[in-house]
Amino acid sequence: MLGFDGALDAPGAAQFGQGSGPISLIYVSCDGTEDNLVDCAHGGVGDYSFCGHGRDAGAICYSGEPFLVRLANGATDSEGRVKVLYKGSWGTICDDNWDLRDARVVCKMLGFNGALAAPDSATFGTGSGKILFDDVGCNGTEDTLAECYHRGFGVNNCEHDSDAGVICFTGAPFLVQLVNGSNDLEGRVEVTCVKCWDPLKVRLNGGANDLEGRVEVMYNGSWGTVCDNGWDLDDARVVCRMLGFDGALAATVSAQFGQGNGNVLLGDVQCYGTEKNIADCYHRGIRVHNCTHASDSGAICFSGGTI
């Protein structure tokens, strides 16, 4: 209505001082797309003096791009902790309600085509400075985070161990095909992720022989481990076959073969048991987990015959 591009914040409690005269509107509820306040839901035009000018509402508007974003501490330039530059200082975003739609907006701001994951819990390390956003709620179509819902600049209940991150992509990350239909117009949808991550290498460590041990995964030149949340025999089967064994006898948990070091790379792994590589199994994303090495997974494999 005032000719600005949008709003950064909606301060309450007479942040800009108390007004005078009648209080004309109450219970205002806009979608944000309206051209005029009269188009928003409200309690009706009247005199709401009982509300008191101590609760006068305000707005902080912007024109142009109000802030910049960048990614920090990722293994590549397409992933990392989200940092926001506002009024000359870099801050972070709290992961409350952080999801793929929010990550999409950040990735598009950085020139990528979209987002593959929205890691939380300081997956890419804890940041510093102020936590600028909390409870971010984007639709995923916005051009900037400034257009997304949030609680207000600097309003949060978080510490930096809740810093949000993103994993972005360029180009088309998925190929799809229809399978088992009666014609080429129908079928089961099968998806191949061609730009998510390369097939992973695995090894077993800490066992009494080469058939058993802690599962370790190679990613970006470094070995890491697998969290045991949801870890079962189907997951162990995939690992054992990757190593050239015939199958798995057991899927061990709670660091039975000792605690590893480096990053915990995978969490909540869910294989069918038929996959050729653990990268083809469902998981929360590389380095997205809530584990320590006390929860490192293991496998006991076998060769020859059936059990």
UniProtKB/TrEMBL annotation:
Disulfide bond entries: 30-40, 94-158, 107-168, 138-148, 227-291, 240-301, 271-281
GO cellular-component term (any): membrane
Key words, A-Z: Disulfide bond, Glycoprotein, Repeat, Signal
Pfam families: SRCR
Keyword Disulfide bond set for record: yes
Gene3D superfamilies tied to this protein: SRCR-like domain (3.10.250.10)
Domain SRCR: 1-62, 69-169, 202-302
Protein name: SRCR domain-containing protein
Organism: Strongylocentrotus purpuratus (Purple sea urchin)
Highest classification ranks of the organism: Eukaryota, Metazoa, Echinodermata, Eleutherozoa, Echinozoa
